[in-house]
Amino acid sequence: MDPVGVAAAAPDAGPGPAWQSKCPWGAPNTTSMSCSLADVMSEQLAKELQLEEENAAFPEVVAVAEGPFITGENIDTSSDLMLAQMLQMEFDREYDAQLRHEEKKINGDSKVSISFENYRKVHPYDSDSSEDEVDWQDTRHDPYRADKPTTTPRKGFIGKGKDITTKHDEVVCGRKNTARMENFAPEFQVGDGIGMDLKLSNQVFNALKQHAYSEERRSARLHEKKEHSTAEKAVDPKTRLLLYKMVNAGMLETITGCISTGKESVVFHAYGGKSATEDKVIPPECAIKVFKTTLNEFKNRDKYIKDDYRFKDRFSKLNPRKIIRMWAEKEMHNLTRMQNAGIPCPQVVILKKHVLVMSFIGQDQVPAPKLKDVTLSSEDMKKAYYQILNMMQQLYKECNLVHADLSEYNMLWHDGKVWLIDVSQSVEPTHPHGLEFLFRDCRNVSQFFQKGGVAEALNERELFNAVSGLNIAADNEVDFQAEIEALEKMNEDHVQNHGKKLSMFSSDGDPPIYDE
């Protein structure tokens, strides 16, 4: 019996299936319809019946399902759009597979993993790639962390009998110590223990922790030294900014380079520019003294400033940067006093924080030689001695200062005369150790010129009396120093009871101080 005969046997069935006109809960129709074995085995008939059922169940998608299913055997390859979609889908599958391969290659067994999830191009209708997708989260088991947090009971142990385990158990403590290594600084490499049940003893963990803290402090010190301090022949960013501002303002024409380095400062040579004010003349060549912002040397030299009555009230041991700025300000005040008294010394141009600009003692970028490096004739050596003796008396009586570090290293020979430099540590005679500093200066000067062959050079005790006018009589150096200490003690008691002795200089006429 053919399909035409089947359709003719049921003329009243209507266009739809027979069960649509009856109640779905009714008794099934027992009418049997005979058909041949060929019709039952016909694949085309099965597809047509399936389409009819889908059209009846989902009428809104009839237009989409009008044609036959697209399978690997009956794809219409004549459509360019279909070919392009198939090629794009295949390319996306290969691209996603390459991304997953890169993830596995980079991550390996590391605890921290990366994911290329945002770069994948999986289409929503691509069901094959969904099976191979990997979640971006790292779901691997951490052997150092329990699946569920376990709390230690108050009694301090768990288990009974031979299976008792305390909080001091070697295995438990070892795993805890291994997990605590994650709290070390990121710069400290602790390795990767994934996949290994590591157990660190307390001794090893404490040694590693101490080493990690030491490395962290050392790294902080190196960073501080690099970013916030002046090094040999170099300046920190803040100091460099100050120098740039001086050049941009026209105060300095150009900075040529470093001419001297010391324990406390670095000196640069520069060519002077134009001053903003008419009454201030900038010399053609300048010396820029940059005080080092490291405190290694200033820690041992704070006695020069904390007991100085001019800066005693402003001294603060808790603020190191202020101490260094105060040190530069102190040299500016001392140079101004010496300049007003007519003592050969550098002329102060300007002070900005810890940068002091002075006139350059020398010519054509060549600094004047120190007294220890120059070879003088006997006449010039004798002339230099009497000049220094006169300058020491002027410092003490007219400037009310003691150099406190006077030696052949801080005296320059230029234009046939001696110039004094480096007076940042100079103090007043009323300083608790002012007379001791003066006696040390006298010893340095006397020994240098006696070795230089100056027969008229006085010894340290005679030079001290000639400079100070105290006329201390002592047979030996020990008694002489004892007299000096007694005078300092008497002077300190007088200052504490009656206040600071009035200085003969009420105003230094100091240049302007700029503190930005």
UniProtKB/TrEMBL annotation:
Record's keyword terms, sorted: Antiviral defense, ATP-binding, Cytoplasm, Immunity, Innate immunity, Kinase, Magnesium, Metal-binding, Nucleotide-binding, Phosphoprotein, Ribosome biogenesis, Serine/threonine-protein kinase, Transferase
Residues covered by the RIO kinase domain: 224-469
EC identifiers of the protein: 2.7.11.1
Catalytic activity entry: L-seryl-[protein] + ATP = O-phospho-L-seryl-[protein] + ADP + H(+); L-threonyl-[protein] + ATP = O-phospho-L-threonyl-[protein] + ADP + H(+)
Cofactors named for this entry: Mg(2+)
Pfam families, per the entry: RIO1 (PF01163)
Region: Disordered, residue numbers: 124-161
Predominant place of localization: cytoplasm
UniProt-listed GO biological process terms: defense response to virus; innate immune response; ribosome biogenesis
PROSITE patterns xref list: RIO1
InterPro entries per the UniProt record, alphabetical: Kinase-like_dom_sf (IPR011009), RIO-type_Ser/Thr_kinase (IPR051272), RIO_dom (IPR018934), RIO_kinase (IPR000687), RIO_kinase_CS (IPR018935), Ser/Thr_kinase_Rio3 (IPR017406)
Localization, UniProt: Cytoplasm
Compositional bias per record (Basic and acidic residues), positions renumbered to this chain: 137-148
GO CC terms, sorted: cytoplasm
GO molecular function, one term: ATP binding
Family membership noted in the UniProt record: Belongs to the protein kinase superfamily. RIO-type Ser/Thr kinase family.
Oligomer status and interactors: Interacts with CASP10. Interacts with IRF3; RIOK3 probably mediates the interaction of TBK1 with IRF3. Associated with 40S pre-ribosomal particles.
Protein name, per record: Serine/threonine-protein kinase RIO3
Organism: Pelecanoides urinatrix (Common diving petrel)
Classification of source organism: Eukaryota, Metazoa, Chordata, Craniata, Vertebrata
UniProt gene name: Riok3
